[in-house]
Design a protein that fits this description.
The protein is of the alpha+beta class and 614 residues long. It contains eleven helices and 37 strands. It folds into four domains: 115 residues, no CATH class; 170 residues, no CATH class; 68 residues; 154 residues, no CATH class.
């Protein structure tokens, strides 16, 4: 029995030795056993330090530039989409992961982790041979480096670098050549990138940033509603936009996620919390100094004007006035997303887009780089464009081409002429723009070459002077110049100039004065026939149902006290030789009742205006 036990022990020991030997030969390439003479060790440690510094620098660039070391080729923005494909953040270009291109296409440029690993490896290869050994050369060392080939693996809490490069170090009798160099640096790059992808995909699926923007829009800008008043409601669109920008900037910074820095304060103010834990801290940043696109319709120049209902002839039975309004906005702006852990930050920007007061449609794609066909890249149709003013004098203009939401910049006319290459499109628009002229669009199909002549109307800035009953007037008024192609409205006297061009206009002037007409609240009943329920509905039977209607009391503070309408053809010679237009309107009696208010509107429709250029 004792002999059998000894044999068993020998067998076990033999199996273990065989396993160790086999394991060594199988895994020897995975170990980095380096035997370096003591005299050579300082040089190699300096080299490893340099490798670590380059790796950390590359990681920092990746994190600060949205996963890129070499950013994509710059794409300029446009008036429609002013983003370009990069956000300038503190002087550093950060590629957008989602943006709207200059010609209106949705684009993504989200790097994959593999692309980041390859970019970091290339970065290391390009810098590792520049490691400084000057001090060692002075001590008599000979150092030679081969061609580097790096492999990088980005993991949750570290970045591992495997560098293949012959590094020969010699001093006196000591010499060593090291061909394989392995380094692992502590970094949260992988964790932060994974969290950034989750944030991006959640935004793409739920559009939570756009939904916050809708809330901001409805809180800080006139969208739709009704005001109980007999005076027009007027907003300055630039002031509306400034207030909206301030709200977006502040409220975007207030957004939080259920990350590792989630606090009781966040729990109390749940409105600003995105209901998901991404495993790291997430910040959302916007600045009103970044590119913005903002458009609102209907508008008259820089003004949003809504006119009252109830003071027109025939509506006196209503007994009150109200101003309904509905405005449609397009808004585009960038948000920078930062994921952070232990003072390490990964950041990327994306565009937030509202279209007709509503969030954009989610992209039906994965979070990887996507390619979109760019119509402007296929410009192969020659077209000759000539641009003139109304007197057939040559005008130097910027020429672009619009087709199905895509806008391509073609070039500039020289002495009013341009021979350009256009993308093929049926019923596109050639657009000519020049300072001091109204933008002109010409319908043209670029399936084949051709020649186009475009006439631009010269625009003149003209001062407006109002008179009421022949006397200069500086009270509140609304002056409108309506033509078939354009409409300009100014609120006088805050605005005293208007841009006009030759053409037929209907000039309208409404002059308002202070009032204190009070209308008490009233109640009335309105009855309508509604279908009966059950079998009676089948037979088409109805029954009367009555509703109580309560009209709130109101005080009218502004009433019409003068004005009129006049059709007038404005000649370019008048605009060129004059610096101002004087408009004289007739007075009407200041009203003291709703009936008198309606009478004033009847007189307003019948009165003309005296118009003189000076």
């Amino acid at each position: 029995m004792r002999n059998k036990g000894q044999v068993t022990v020998f067998i076990v020991v033999a199996v273990v030795l065989v396993a160790l030997v086999a394991g060594y030969f199988l895994l020897k390439d995975s170990f980095n056993f380096i035997s370096i003479p003591a005299n050579v060790e300082p040089v190699y440690q300096n080299f490893l330090s340099c490798l670590e510094e380059n790796t950390l620098l590359g990681i920092d660039v990746l994190e600060s530039q949205g996963g890129y070391i070499e950013v994509p080729t710059f794409e300029a923005g446009s008036e429609y989409a002013p983003f370009s494909n990069q956000l300038d953040f503190l002087g550093n270009p950060v590629p957008y992961w989602y943006y709207i291109s200059a010609n209106g296409l949705e684009k993504e440029q989200v790097p994959t982790k593999t692309e980041m690993e390859e970019a970091l490896a290339s970065f290391i290869d390009g810098r590792i041979r520049d490691c400084g050994f000057d001090d060692f050369y002075a001590e008599g060392y000979e150092i030679n480096q081969g061609e580097p080939i790096s492999e990088v693996s980005i993991r949750g809490g570290e970045v591992v670098v495997n560098l293949k490069m012959d590094l020969s170090i010699t001093k006196e009798e000591d010499s060593s050549t090291i061909s394989s160099h392995k380094l692992a640096v502590n970094s949260n790059l992988g964790t932060l990138y994974d969290s950034a992808i989750k944030v991006y995909e959640k935004e793409n699926e739920e559009l939570f940033l756009e939904r916050y923007t809708v809330d901001n829009l409805r809180l800080y800008a006139p969208v739709d509603g009704v005001e109980i008043t007999c005076s027009p409601q007027i907003w300055n669109s630039q002031e509306v936009f400034d207030e909206l920008q301030n709200a977006i900037e502040s409220n975007t910074l207030a957004l939080r996620t259920k990350g590792n820095d989630y606090t009781l304060k966040d729990e109390i103010n749940k409105y600003f919390v995105i209901d998901e834990d991404f495993g790291v801290s997430v910040n959302f940043i916007n600045s009103k100094n970044w590119p913005y696109y903002y458009e609102v319709n209907p508008s008259e120049g820089d003004l949003l004007v809504s006119l009252p209902v109830g003071n027109q002839p025939g509506l006196g039975i209503m007994g009150f006035c109200y101003v309904p309004y509905h405005y449609v906005y397009d808004v585009k702006y960038p948000v920078l997303v930062q994921t952070s852990l232990n003072e390490e930050i990964f950041q990327f920007p994306m565009a937030v887009v509202l279209d007709n007061n509503n969030p954009r449609k989610p992209l039906d794609v994965e979070a990887v780089g996507s390619q979109f066909t760019n119509l402007c890249e296929y410009s192969d149709t020659p077209v000759s464009v000539k641009t003139y003013d109304i007197g057939f004098n040559s005008v130097n203009t910027n020429i672009s081409f619009e087709c199905f939401g895509t806008k391509c910049d073609i070039g500039e006319t020289i002495n009013g002429e341009l021979d350009g290459m256009f993308p093929q499109c049926v019923n596109g628009f050639i657009v000519a723009k020049a300072d001091g002229f109204k933008e002109s669009k010409y319908l043209f199909s670029t399936i084949s070459s051709g020649n186009v002549d475009i006439i631009l109307d010269k625009v003149y800035e003209t001062e407006v002077n109002l008179k009421l009953g022949g006397v200069d007037y500086n009270g509140e008024s609304i002056v409108t110049f309506k033509s078939d192609s354009d409409s300009k409205t100014i609120v006088y006297p805050e605005q005293k100039s208007v841009e006009l061009m030759e053409g037929q206009y209907e000039v309208q002037v409404q002059i308002y004065g202070d009032s204190n007409i009070k209308f008490p609240s009233s109640k009335s009943q309105q009855c309508v026939d509604v279908p009966q329920q059950g079998f009676g509905r089948i037979l088409g039977l109805t029954k009367e149902r009555c509703y109580d209607i309560e009209v709130p009391g109101q005080t009218i503070t502004q009433v019409l006290i003068g004005g009129g309408k006049q059709n007038y053809y404005i000649l370019e010679s008048e605009l060129k030789s004059s610096s101002s237009i004087t408009i004289n309107a007739d007075k009407v009696t200041k009203p003291t009742s709703i009936e008198e208010m309606q009478m004033n509107y009847i007189l307003y429709d019948q009165r003309g205006l005296e118009i003189n250029f000076r």
